[in-house]
Write a structure and sequence with these properties.
It is a single chain. The protein is mainly β. The chain has two domains: about 30 residues, no CATH class; about 200 residues, Jelly Rolls (Sandwich), CATH 2.60.120. The protein contains two helices and 14 strands, in the order αββββββββββββββα. The protein has a five-stranded antiparallel beta sheet with strand order 1-14-6-12-11, with no helix packed on it. A five-stranded antiparallel beta sheet has the order 2-5-13-7-8, with no helix packed on it. A two-stranded antiparallel ribbon has the order 3-4. α1 runs antiparallel to α2. It is globular. The two termini are about 30 Å apart. The relative contact order is 0.24.
């Protein structure tokens, strides 16, 4: 009984001091919905990894070109309305597809994420074993090909031209405005005008996003000060100890 009361005090302390996390947006793109997303290149669509991939999935891509390839030098924007809040958490999977050159001689290929001002990520990726990349650091940096990848060559793209890598990205940042605008940006990549004759545009190097989640930490109830919470928890624990401690017999 005493142990249970002490645990209860801890639970009260944790939950009473926590802000309420509100799920604002969640999309794995399996349902065909792209609401909230726009691009600077004519719209978005649901793309799908090649047949036979061990990680077979739908993800967000361009509204034209190759329906399995995602984006190249695109600015992809997600705009959301939020309630009162102070902090936002963004999580998503980035699919780095085919022959990214990272920091190589033909590289300077970069990936950026920002929140209408605050830069969340400025990095680069390489799927070419002869090149290095900035990630998991921001550029400038030098790390081995596919460093920090959660999955390597699971999406079914041709390994002769780089294959693919999956990165689980997670950012928590201060934000109070009622509208949140997120930008996902590819830069320095080949596109439909600069690709070579064998692997032009999206079939040479591209990217996609999947499993996008946005959470805010809106506080909807009053939260006692930490010192008050500590007193409450201590009082509950102390009450349990006092009630269960053997009483002395009167002499």
């Amino acid at each position: 009984m005493k142990t249970w009361l002490v645990v209860l005090a801890g639970v009260i302390l944790v939950f009473a001091s926590s802000a309420e996390a509100i799920l604002v947006y969640s999309n794995d793109f399996e349902g065909g919905v792209t609401t909230g997303f726009t691009t600077n290149t004519g719209g978005v669509a649901i793309d799908q990894t090649p047949a036979g991939a061990s990680h077979s999935t739908h993800f967000l891509g361009r509204a034209d070109d190759d329906s399995t390839a995602g984006f190249t030098n695109d600015v992809v924007t997600l705009t959301l309305g939020l309630g009162a809040h102070t902090t936002v958490t963004l999580a998503f999977d980035l699919y780095v597809i085919r022959s990214w050159d990272g920091n190589g001689a033909n590289g300077g290929e970069r990936y950026l994420v920002d929140a209408s001002g605050p830069s969340l990520l400025f990095t680069g990726f390489a799927n070419n074993d002869a090149k290095d990349q900035c990630f998991p650091d921001n550029c400038p940096a030098s790390n081995p090909t596919k460093s920090g990848a959660a999955e390597v060559n699971t999406l079914g793209y041709d390994q002769n031209i780089g294959g693919d890598a999956v990165y689980h990205l997670f950012f928590t940042f201060p934000h109070t405005a009622s509208t949140l605008t997120l930008h996902f940006i590819g830069a320095g990549l080949q596109d439909s005008t600069t690709g070579d004759t064998v692997f032009p545009g999206l079939t040479d190097e591209s990217w996609g996003i999947d499993n996008v989640t946005v959470v805010d930490d809106s506080v909807t109830t009053a939260v006692p000060a930490p010192a008050t919470l500590l007193l409450i928890a201590s009082a509950v624990a102390g009450l349990g100890v006092h009630q269960l401690w053997p009483r002395r017999r009167a002499r």
